[in-house]
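User: I'm putting together notes for a lab meeting next week and I want to include a structural view of one of the chains we've been expressing. I don't have a solved structure, so I'd like a prediction I can at least talk through. The sequence is below, exactly as it appears in our construct file.
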Amino acid sequence: MCKGLSSLPSSCLEKAKDLRVKLSHLAETHHKHRVQEGKTLQDLETLLNSKSGLEAFRGFLRSEFSEENLEFWLACEDYRFSPSNLQKIKASSMFSQFINADAQQEVNLDGETRDALLSAIDSPCADTFMKAQQRIYSLMAKDSFPRFLRSHHCMEAIKAF
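Assistant: Thanks for the context. Below is the predicted structure for the 161-residue chain, given as structure tokens.
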């Protein structure tokens, strides 16, 4: 019934071998690309340092009505690298936008961190918001980021990388 591969002309066998090599190379390249994408987006810090990743994450947070965490984290980054003569003005703005109980974009901080910030409002320094920023980063990393990885917003970020 079936005579096997030996009955095929040698030119067909050579083409089949070439095709097999090309397909295995393509599969290997695709696998490496998927692994690289996964590594890229498994890390919140890497995502926040990418313009397209940051925008995709912002869009996701906006869809969940929790964009204030990212905005606070970005404001802290801006504050950290601000000249000391602007820190008091920026700190005051950040308090009214993110920290005060009636803040428009109040972030979820524990009482101890909030109290420490409130006591530092009159004389802010470069690391005034460091602990609060770390808490919000941790909150995003443990809560929002894993959901982001499962969202369509993540697929947009992967395409942009």
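A couple of points you could mention at the meeting. The chain has a mean pLDDT of 82. The chain is about 75% helix and 0% strand.

User: Perfect, that's what I needed.
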